[in-house]
Design goal:
By secondary structure, the chain is mainly β. It has 10 helices and 62 strands. The strands form 16 sheets. The protein has a 22-stranded antiparallel barrel. Strands 10-16-17-13-14 form a 5-stranded mixed β-sheet. The chain has a 4-stranded antiparallel β-sheet with strand order 3-2-5-6, with no helix packed on it. Keywords: Cell outer membrane, Ion transport, Iron, Iron transport, Membrane, Receptor, Signal, Transmembrane, Transport.
C-alpha cells in the first residue's frame, strides 16, 4: 500500500514539473510586487495583465503577485492593474519590482453597485436603471420599520402601510402589474437571501355588526430587519435588472446589504449608538365640538322647559321628556354652558339627578392617546486583519406607541464575518437573530372592538374620564362599562383587556464560499435561510362586543425559506479591448409555511386566557403550504474598450405551483449601454453621457395548491370541507415583458447629474381567482386572465451647487410618473374583474381602466352635471355601481437637501404626491353622525345652507321651527316633461348628510390623496478630530431629527397614505377605520472607540 502511495506521489510531482518548468523556462521576464489601497491594506484578487497580451496574474491574500511573461518586457510594454471599485491603472514596465497603490473611483457613475445574485458591477456598465440608498439615509430619522426610510428617496417606489406600531409595509416599484392583490410586492433580498413575507392576519378591514375577527398587524417577513445593521439598499427596478432572481422578482427587487467590518480600520473597534424619539399624532381630522349628541327629532315636549327646542337627556328626563342618548349622532342641541341637561353621572353610572351644564369635551379623543417613545441602543464590535474582518452587533429597541399598553420590544443580534482562507478561497458568514415581543398590538379596521371604531362613534358631550373605570360597579370583569351603546366597546377595555400579544423568533442567515479556480474562473457557492416562529394570541374578555362570553385564540405560525445557489464565473480581457464576464448557475428554493390555530368561544373564568378555560372544545385549524422552485440561469457581460457594454441573461424555472405541463418556463433579457463621451469628444463641461436600453422577460408563478382539489378541515372534528375555489390543471405562468431606455448625464466634474428613464411593461396570463356563480358549488375559479400595461418616466437629478472649503451643499430631486392600464381580460371572463373589496367600495379591473380603480355608487346627475333630487328632497340613488376614481397618483416626487458647514450638517426631505384617490369609510360614518366640522354647514349662522327657524319655507313644510336644523339640498328635480328645475324641498341637515354621504355612495366619500410632507429633518454635529484626539473616541456625533413633521393635504382623515389591512393584503386606496400616523422628534448619539 505504501509503495502504491509513493508511486502516485511521484507521478503527481513529475506532472507538476512538466507544468511548472516550461512556464519558468519559457518566461523571459518576471515582475513581482504588492497591490494595496490608499490605507495600505492589500487588495486581494486584483488582476495584473500585460496590455494587448493574454498574459496575466492575480494578487494573493497579502496583495502580492508574480507575473511571468514569455517575452522580454521593455519600457514600451504596459502593465494594467484592475480591481472592482478602483480606477484601472496602466504602468509602463520599469523593472522586476513594481508595487502599486490603487485609487478608488472618483467618478460617480463608476460606483460599484450590487446587482442580481449579489454580483458586483460598475454602474457605468449597466443598461438599466438602479438606485442606491445609503444606510445613513435610512436611519437619518430613525424609523422603527426600515422600509419607511425609503419613502421619497427612490423614483418609482411606493411604500404604504395600514398603520400601527409595527407598521408593516407594501413596497411596489413602477406600479402594480398584477390583477392579484398580493401579486404586486417587490422582492426583498437581504445579503443574497430572498425574504418570503407572508402576512397572517386573522381578520378583515370591515367587520362591524358581524362575529368576525379584527385585522391585526403582527408584521410581515421583513418588518423586523434592524435599520442600524443596514449598509445600503440597492433598488433594482426593471425586468432586466431583476430577471436573474426569477419569478418573485417580476415586481422589482429591494436588495439590503448589511454592515461588515471590511471598511473599518485594522484592529478592534467599537461603535455605540443610542437614539430616543418621542412620538405623537401627526394629524387629526377636523372634528366639530359645536353640537352634542342627539337628533333633530329630539324636541322638548310642550309644557316643559325645553318645549319647541332641541334638548338632551340621558335616559328619560324627570320632566317627562324622552331619553335622547340612544343615538351615536351629534345633531343635537348646540353647546351652551348656561343651559343644563340631565346627563350621565359617572358615580351612579346612570342618569344624574341634577341637570349639569351642556358643554363639549374637546379632548375626549385626543386624551385617549399618549406621548409615545422609541428608545434604541446599539453596540457593534468590528475587527479587521489582512486576511479577514468581522462585525458583531446587538441592538435593543423599546417602543411605547401612542396608544397606552401598545408597542413592542425587539432585540437583534447579528454577525458578519469574512475570511480569506487562502489565495483561492474566501468564506463569508452572515447571520442575524431577532427576538420581538409584542405585549399588545392594536386592532385595525372598522370593527366594534377597534379603537378606530370608538374614535368614530365618540360623541362631543362625553367626558373620556367617565369611561376609565372600565367595568360596571359590582360587575368587574363581567360587564364592561358602555354608557351610551352596547355596540361600542369601552376604549380602556379594548386597550387593557382585549390584548393581542405576540412572541416572535426569527433568523436570516447565509454562508458562502468564493473559490478562485484560476485567473479566469471563479466559483461561488451560497446557502441561506430565513426562518421565523411566531406565537400569537387574542384575548377577548367576557362582555366583549363581538364575543359576549369571552374569546381566546392561540396561533403558532412557523415558516422558512431555504435558498441554495452555485455560480461559476468566467472573466477575461483581450488585446482588442474586449472584456468578458460570463456566469452560469443554479438555485434551489424551498418554502414551508405552517399555521396552527386553536380558539375557544366562551371563557369559564374571566380573565384567564387558556384553551383549557374555554366553555367549548377548541376549534382547531391548520394551514400548511409547501412550495419549491428549481432554476438554472446564465448571464454574460461584454465590455468593449470601456465604451460599449452589452449584457445577456437567461433563466429557466421549474415551479411546483404550476401544472405539470406548464411547470417549466424560460425568460431572457438583453441590455446595452454606450458611453458617448468615450466615443467622441464632447464639450469639456460634460463629464459623462451614457445612453442605455434594455429588453427583458420575467415569469411568475402563483400560490400553492391551485392545480387540483384540496380539502380543508372544518369546524367539526374529523371532517373536511369542500374547497370554495375551483382548481385549474392547465393554467400558464404569468409573463412580464419589459422595455426600458434612458440616459445618464454628468456635468462640471460630476457636480451635476441627471438620470432619465422611460419604461414600458406588459404582464399577460395573469393568474387570479375569478368570481363564479355560487350555484356551481364554487365561489371562485383559478384562471389566466388579462394583460396589464405599465409605462412611465423617472427622473433623478443630483447636484452639488456649492462646494468650498468649509461649506458644501448637496441636493437631489426624484420624480416619477406611472400610467397603468388593463389592455385585455380573458375571453369569456366577466368584463368587470373584481380585484378586491372592503365594505361598499370595490377595486374592479376593466379593459381600458387600471388595477387600482375604485368602484361604487355615485350621485345621479343630469346632463349639466347637477345632482338630481328625489321627491323626498334627498339625492336620488343610483341603480348600479360605476367607476369613481383611481387610487394611483399622477406622479410622485422627493426633494432632498444636505448642507454641511465644517462639522455641522443639516438635511431635510420633502416628499410629495399629486393625485391618487382614497375612499374613506371613517369619513362616511362621521359625516353621517355629524362629527366632522364640515357638517356644520347649515347648522351655524352664516354658512351656505343655514336656514333660520323663522324661514317661511319651514312653516310651509309644517316643520318645527328650529334654527340651523333644516336645509334645501343643492340640486335639481326632474319635471314630468323631462326638464329640470331647482330643488325647493326642505329637509333636515341630518337627513341630507346621512343620504349624501351614505356608506354606499363611494363618490361622496372619495378624496384626492395629494400631499406634501416634510418627511425628514436632521441636524448633526460631528466632533472634530482635534478634540477627539484627547479622548478614547475616534469619532463622535450628536444629532437632532424629526419625521413626518408636517403634512399638507386636503384628505379629511388622519393620513392620505392610509391603506386597509384586509386579510393578508394591504389594500391601497381604501381607508376603513385607520389609526393615526405618528410624528416623531428625537436625539441620536454615536461614538466609535
Amino acid at each position: 500500500m505504501n509503495q502504491k502511495n509513493s508511486f502516485k506521489q511521484l507521478r503527481f510531482l513529475i506532472a507538476m514539473l512538466f507544468i511548472i518548468i516550461p512556464s519558468v523556462v519559457w518566461s523571459q521576464s518576471t515582475v513581482k510586487g504588492k497591490v494595496t489601497d490608499s490605507n495600505g491594506d492589500p487588495l486581494i484578487g486584483a488582476t495584473i495583465t500585460v496590455k494587448n497580451s493574454p498574459e496575466g496574474t492575480v494578487s494573493d491574500v497579502d496583495g502580492n503577485y508574480v507575473l511571468y511573461s514569455r517575452k522580454s518586457l521593455t519600457s514600451k510594454d504596459v502593465l494594467v492593474f484592475a480591481y472592482l471599485g478602483y480606477q484601472n491603472q496602466e504602468v509602463s514596465y520599469s523593472g522586476n519590482i513594481l508595487n502599486l497603490v490603487m485609487k478608488e473611483n472618483a467618478v460617480a457613475l463608476n460606483d460599484v453597485v450590487v446587482t442580481a445574485l449579489g454580483i458586483k458591477r460598475e454602474e457605468k456598465g449597466l443598461g438599466y436603471a438602479t438606485q442606491t440608498v445609503d444606510g445613513n439615509q435610512i436611519t437619518g430619522a430613525m424609523p422603527t420599520n426600515w422600509s419607511a426610510g425609503l419613502s421619497g428617496k427612490v423614483a418609482g417606489l411606493s411604500v404604504v402601510s395600514p398603520g400601527g406600531p409595527i407598521g408593516s409595509t407594501r413596497i411596489s416599484l413602477r406600479g402594480d402589474v398584477s390583477l392579484n392583490q398580493n401579486g404586486n410586492n417587490a422582492l426583498i433580498v437581504v445579503d443574497g437571501v430572498p425574504m418570503s413575507s407572508p402576512m397572517t392576519n386573522p381578520g378583515t378591514a370591515y367587520g362591524a355588526g358581524s362575529a368576525s375577527e379584527l385585522s391585526i398587524d403582527y408584521g410581515n417577513g421583513f418588518a423586523d430587519i434592524n435599520p442600524d445593521d443596514i449598509e445600503s439598499v440597492q433598488i433594482l427596478k426593471g425586468a432586466s435588472a431583476t430577471a436573474l432572481y426569477g419569478t418573485r422578482a417580476a415586481n422589482g427587487v429591494v436588495m439590503v446589504t448589511t454592515k461588515s467590518g471590511s471598511k473599518s480600520q485594522k484592529g478592534i473597534g467599537v461603535t455605540y449608538n443610542t437614539s430616543l424619539s418621542v412620538d405623537d399624532v401627526m394629524r387629526w381630522p377636523d372634528y366639530q365640538y359645536e353640537f352634542g349628541q342627539g337628533l333633530p327629532s329630539n324636541v322638548g315636549k310642550a309644557g316643559t322647559e325645553y318645549a319647541g327646542k332641541l334638548y338632551y337627556s340621558y335616559g328619560a328626563a324627570p320632566d317627562g321628556n324622552s331619553g335622547t342618548s340612544g343615538t351615536s349622532s351629534a345633531y343635537g342641541a348646540k353647546f351652551n354652558p348656561e343651559v343644563s341637561f340631565y346627563q350621565y353621572d359617572p358615580v351612579t353610572q346612570g342618569r344624574a339627578t341634577e341637570a349639569t351644564p351642556w358643554i363639549a369635551y374637546k379632548d375626549n379623543r385626543k386624551d385617549l392617546f399618549q406621548t409615545g417613545y422609541t428608545l434604541t441602543n446599539s453596540i457593534a464590535i468590528n475587527g479587521k486583519s489582512d486576511r479577514g474582518n468581522i462585525r458583531a452587533s446587538v441592538t435593543h429597541t423599546k417602543n411605547e406607541w401612542i396608544l397606552p399598553n401598545t408597542g413592542f420590544q425587539r432585540v437583534v443580534a447579528s454577525i458578519n464575518a469574512q475570511q480569506q482562507v487562502s489565495r483561492m478561497l474566501k468564506l463569508n458568514l452572515k447571520a442575524s437573530y431577532t427576538n420581538r415581543k409584542l405585549d399588545n398590538v392594536p386592532a385595525l379596521g372598522y370593527n366594534s372592538n377597534s379603537i378606530s371604531y370608538f374614535l368614530i362613534f365618540q360623541n362631543p358631550n362625553v367626558n373620556l374620564d367617565w369611561l376609565r373605570p372600565m367595568w360596571r360597579t359590582g360587575e368587574e370583569n363581567l360587564k364592561q362599562l358602555q354608557p351610551y351603546s352596547s355596540f361600542i366597546g369601552n376604549p380602556f377595555v379594548i386597550l387593557y383587556e382585549s390584548e393581542n400579544p405576540s412572541q416572535k423568533h426569527s433568523t436570516v442567515s447565509s454562508v458562502s464560499a468564493e473559490l478562485k479556480l484560476s485567473r479566469k474562473f471563479d466559483l461561488m457557492i451560497r446557502s441561506g435561510i430565513q426562518l421565523s416562529a411566531d406565537q400569537r394570541e387574542q384575548h377577548r374578555p367576557i362582555s366583549d362586543v363581538v364575543y359576549a362570553n369571552g374569546f381566546f385564540k392561540k396561533q403558532n405560525v412557523f415558516d422558512y425559506e431555504l435558498n441554495s445557489d452555485a455560480l461559476l464565473t468566467y472573466h477575461d480581457s483581450f488585446s482588442n479591448g474586449l472584456h468578458v464576464n460570463a456566469s452560469v448557475g443554479g438555485n434551489m428554493m424551498n418554502q414551508y409555511y405552517d399555521m396552527l390555530s386553536a380558539s375557544v368561544n366562551g371563557l369559564i373564568t374571566p380573565g384567564v386566557y387558556k384553551l383549557a378555560n374555554g366553555t367549548s372544545n377548541p376549534y382547531v385549524q391548520t394551514i400548511i403550504n409547501k412550495r419549491s422552485l428549481n432554476s438554472l440561469y446564465f448571464t454574460a457581460n461584454f465590455s468593449y474598450q470601456n465604451k460599449l457594454f452589452v449584457d445577456i441573461t437567461g433563466r429557466n424555472d421549474w415551479s411546483s405551483t404550476l401544472p405539470k405541463q406548464n411547470r417549466s418556463f424560460f425568460y431572457p433579457s438583453v441590455s446595452s449601454s454606450v458611453l458617448v463621451n468615450e466615443l467622441t469628444k464632447l464639450p469639456e463641461q460634460i463629464s459623462m453621457l451614457k445612453i442605455r436600453a434594455s429588453w427583458a422577460q420575467v415569469g411568475n408563478d402563483t400560490e400553492p395548491y391551485k392545480t387540483a382539489a384540496y380539502y380543508s378541515t372544518s369546524e367539526f372534528s374529523g371532517s373536511l370541507q369542500m374547497p370554495s375555489t375551483l382548481y385549474n390543471a392547465s393554467f400558464k405562468p404569468e409573463i412580464s415583458t419589459n422595455y426600458e431606455t434612458g440616459i445618464d448625464f454628468r456635468m462640471f466634474k460630476n457636480r451635476l447629474g441627471l438620470d432619465f428613464t422611460f419604461y414600458y411593461n406588459q404582464t399577460k396570463n395573469q393568474i387570479l381567482d375569478a368570481p363564479m356563480d355560487a350555484t356551481t358549488g364554487y365561489t371562485r375559479a383559478t384562471i389566466n386572465s388579462g394583460n396589464v400595461r405599465n409605462r412611465g418616466y423617472e427622473v433623478q437629478l443630483n447636484g452639488t451647487p456649492v462646494s468650498i472649503r468649509d461649506f458644501k451643499w448637496n441636493t437631489s430631486f426624484t420624480w416619477s410618473k406611472n400610467e397603468n392600464k388593463i389592455l385585455e381580460l380573458a375571453e369569456g371572463s366577466d368584463e368587470n374583474q373584481l380585484i378586491g373589496s372592503v365594505g361598499s367600495v370595490s377595486i374592479i379591473g376593466k379593459v381600458g381602466g387600471t388595477t387600482g380603480d375604485l368602484w361604487g355608487y355615485k350621485l345621479v346627475r343630469n346632463g349639466n352635471g347637477e345632482v338630481i333630487i328625489g321627491a323626498n328632497g334627498l339625492p336620488v340613488r343610483a341603480d348600479e355601481i360605476e367607476y369613481v376614481a383611481s387610487a394611483y397618483p399622477a406622479w410622485k416626487a422627493g426633494f432632498f437637501n444636505e448642507l454641511t458647514y465644517k462639522q455641522l450638517t443639516f438635511s431635510f426631505l420633502i416628499d410629495m404626491q399629486k393625485g391618487g384617490n382614497i375612499y374613506s369609510h371613517s369619513h362616511h360614518k362621521m359625516t353621517e353622525q355629524g362629527k366632522l366640522a364640515h357638517t356644520l354647514n347649515g347648522r351655524l349662522e352664516g354658512t351656505e345652507y343655514y336656514m333660520d327657524g323663522n324661514d317661511p319655507r319651514i312653516a310651509a313644510a309644517k316643520l318645527t321651527p328650529l334654527d340651523g336644523v333644516y336645509m334645501i339640498a343643492p340640486g335639481v328635480v326632474q319635471n314630468n316633461d323631462g326638464s329640470f328645475s331647482p330643488n325647493e324641498k326642505v329637509v333636515t341637515i341630518e337627513a341630507y348628510n346621512k343620504e349624501y354621504y351614505r356608506m354606499a355612495n363611494v363618490e361622496a366619500n372619495t378624496f384626492d390623496a395629494s400631499y406634501i410632507k416634510l418627511r425628514e429633518v436632521r441636524l448633526e454635529y460631528s466632533f472634530p478630530k482635534s478634540l477627539l484626539n484627547q479622548t478614547p473616541f475616534q469619532n463622535a456625533k450628536i444629532a437632532l431629527y424629526g419625521r413626518n413633521l408636517l403634512c399638507l393635504t386636503d384628505f379629511p382623515m388622519f393620513d392620505p397614505e392610509a391603506a386597509a389591512l384586509n386579510g393578508s393584503s394591504i389594500l391601497p386606496g381604501v381607508e376603513t377605520g385607520s389609526l393615526p400616523s405618528t410624528r416623531s422628534v428625537g436625539i441620536n448619539i454615536g461614538v466609535t472607540f
